[in-house]
Amino acid sequence: MDIPGSPNVIAKVAVNDAGAEAWVLRLEEEARLYCNELRHLQGRVVPRFFGFYTGTRQRVFSRWDVAPAACMILEDCGDSLVDETLRAYLEQLPRSLKIEVMKNVLRLHKEAGCKHGELELENFVMRGNDLNSVRLIDFKYARVGHRCKYGDRCARAHCKELDRLEDVLKIFKCGHRYATIIR
């Protein structure tokens, strides 16, 4: 149901029977990240966070045994930039889109002190062709306390995550210059 003025949301759910406890804890850590380090990036680098809920549910093949379950509600920020069928066409993504992706990761590192941990293009979403709507999602492997020195003159030696992303995006023809793109 579409309610005018209300945001579209998605629910990220952890309910699988085998290892459900681990997935629930990981989802809880991700929710904590949204409430703390990512709070000031919501709506511009990452989706807005609306809540985290826990409970139990009956296991699939048992009448009496219950498993933990959790649900995180986030703003729906559009579709993934690529899927498996488009992976071969990465070089065809517009340069402006690749730069916007890099800017968001730089903001994540600098403003939140957070390393994403799984920078795949599937973890970037966008509404239509609006470059201002690019958002980074899926923080299950994220780590806080990252002290990225990307502003240093010799930034390449300081952040493997940014180097890896730049290698994938191939934004710059002559070496890594990501340190200057959001100044």
Automatic annotation (TrEMBL):
Origin superkingdom: Eukaryota
Supply the InterPro entries for this chain.
Kinase-like_dom_sf
Instruction: Output this protein's name.
Output: Protein kinase domain-containing protein
